[in-house]
Amino acid sequence: MGRSADLPRSSGEIDGDDTGCHVLHVDMDAFFASVEIRARPELRGLPVAVGGAEGRGVVMAASYPARVFGVRSAMSMAQALRLCPQLVVVTPNRTAYTEASSAVMRILADVTPLVEPLSLDEAFLDVSGAVGLFGRPADIARQIRRRVFSEHQLTCSVGIAPIKSVAKLASGSCKPDGLRVVSKAGVLDFLHPLPVTALWGVGQRTAELLRRLGIRTVEDLAVTPLDTLRRTVGAASADHLHALANGHDERAVNPAQVEKSISTDRTLAADLLTEAEVCRELLRASGEVAERLRRGGWVARTVGIKIRFADFTTVTRVHTLAEPTDVATVVYTQTVKLYRSLKLDQPRIRLVGVKAENLRPVGEATQLALDLFGDQQSAATPTDRVIDALAARFGKPVVGPASLLGRQSADRSAAGFNRSADRSGRLDPGGDNE
């Protein structure tokens, strides 16, 4: 997704002709920070950041008063405190965020079964079948906002448009606590003045390549010959971006695609200097990812790592397994292989991450393995299940690899909690930007 911070914003309601605008994008406002402020009303109106307060803690989310000072998610907490010395730093509470997210998603499901969560704090809805019951799309959006606030004391912004990409941009442009309709006839008028970085799929590298072509706005992109774009950013990316810039997005709201990947990463209190230290972090992250796979009923076919060096250079590597897995040892073994494939000489590493993607439901994968091989490979072991049960009952860490014992509290205070899981369980340091 493009960077919503690049969008011009106008909070409040911007209504219009919503005929044919069946796609809603609901986005919670400063979600993690708002959940914390709800629990501690004395923080309302103060600059608040959620994340690790010590060492190399990272801002997971910032309240709107904090953003006035330039505090943003994914920023180091040290930088955030320099920008705003009076910043109130709150330790993250993942359980509270998950519970609040589930409550909001239930409200959305009351409107339509066609709900596609993108993360804990945002989702697409297709309300084409709901207008007979609840009124025009803009009225449905108002009802959602009203219920979220009255029942859960949280606010959200809603974008209403004929296509997903525009609905997402519309919600970002009316934050916080806003509503915006982009009519079918007004899609290009809305899109074309926007910076090209607002578009879905324009990251830092692509933005730089487009800038070299003199492309700075969505309109610049829309009128650039497709062949020129293909030579610059590749055929697939060029076709995708050119279509979006011209108001074309064929993707339907898909409630079946609830989770796309699960990942976790940590910024360490001190640079890692040895392979043994890195492997210990890979072991920790692999265990967390595998446990979340099992908890969600998923197995993963693809495993990846993210390594960030002291100079903030970041590398990623992925590998597709022969069989999907939810086993920590399988994930860990592959991540170590990926790390060693980098062939690093005296690295200084500040962040280590593990990702599982290409997910499928465990039952479907089990049947496929039985059909092909006569037994299931890479399945969770009885030990995994016992660890899951203990964690569910007593919290973590209760039992785990011996090499990780005695370090849990230090790690939590250093890095806070780096969140991740790209769809309904998404938690990611740069995700709560709204």
Give an overview in words.
By secondary structure, this protein is of the alpha+beta class. Among the domains are: about 30-95, 3-Layer(aba) Sandwich (MutS, DNA mismatch repair protein, domain I); about 190-245, DNA polymerase, domain 1, CATH 1.10.150; about 260-400, DNA polymerase, Y-family, little finger domain (Dna Ligase, domain 1, 2-Layer Sandwich). It is about 40% helix and about 20% strand. The chain has 17 helices and 13 strands. The protein has helices at about 30-40, 65, 75-85, 95-110, 130-135, 135-150, 165-175, 185-190, 205-210, 220-225, 225-235, 235-245, 275-295, 330-340, 360-375, 380-395, 410-415, and strands at about 15, 25-30, 50, 60, 90, 115-120, 120-125, 155-160, 180, 260-270, 300-310, 315-325, 350-360. A 6-stranded mixed beta sheet has the order 1-9-8-2-7-6. Strands 10-13-11-12 form a 4-stranded antiparallel beta sheet. Strand 8 (about 155-160), helix 7 and strand 9 form a beta-alpha-beta unit. It is globular, with a radius of gyration of 22 Å. The chain starts with 12 loop residues before the first strand and ends in a 19-residue tail after the last helix. About 45% of the residues are buried.
Put simply, the count of helices is 17
**Average of pLDDT:** 84
Structural class: alpha+beta
DSSP helix fraction: 40-55%
Shape: globular
Query: CATH class of one domain, anyone?
Result: Alpha Beta
Main beta sheet: strand number and arrangement?
6 strands, mixed
Which stretches of 5+ consecutive residues score pLDDT under 50? 365-377, 406-433
For the terminal residues, how far apart are their CA atoms? 13 Å
Beta-strand percent range: 15-25%
| SSE order, one letter for each helix or strand | EEHEEHHEHEEHHEHEHHHHHEHEEHEHHH
At CATH level 2, the architecture of one domain is 2-Layer Sandwich
Radius of gyration from the alpha-carbon trace, in angstroms: 22 Å
Sheet with most strands: strand arrangement:
1-9-8-2-7-6
Task: Name the CATH superfamily assignment of one domain.
Answer: DNA polymerase, Y-family, little finger domain
